[in-house]
Amino acid sequence: MAEKKQKKINPNGMVFITSTFNNTLVAVTSDKGDVVAWSSSGAAGFKGTRKSTPYAASSAVEAAVKRAFEKGLRTVDVYVKGPGAGRDSALRAIKNGGLSISSIADITPIPHNGPRAKKKRRI
Fold this sequence. Notes:
alpha/beta; 2 helices; 5 strands
């Protein structure tokens, strides 16, 4: 079978980090938004409560960044979403992976008084 042709990508890209209380998801995209590489704490081999640790987040980011670096990505804009523990360690892992960070933005969705809250719990 023929080898898959390697597509050349622009050296500029974006990294989307979604850090929840249970997992950390990373998607590295080109400047157009096409996903170049992705990973998660679960895909990095962590299970259960260890998925939500900062170490699991950094190893997931390192895996995705390594694949993106091999495809030609060099500088990235970072978009962080969510309240999880892996936010800071994920940024450090991007830096250690060889990519230079041009900007960091927090895109955590904040309700501007969205739907009505649940009733107060009485004990």
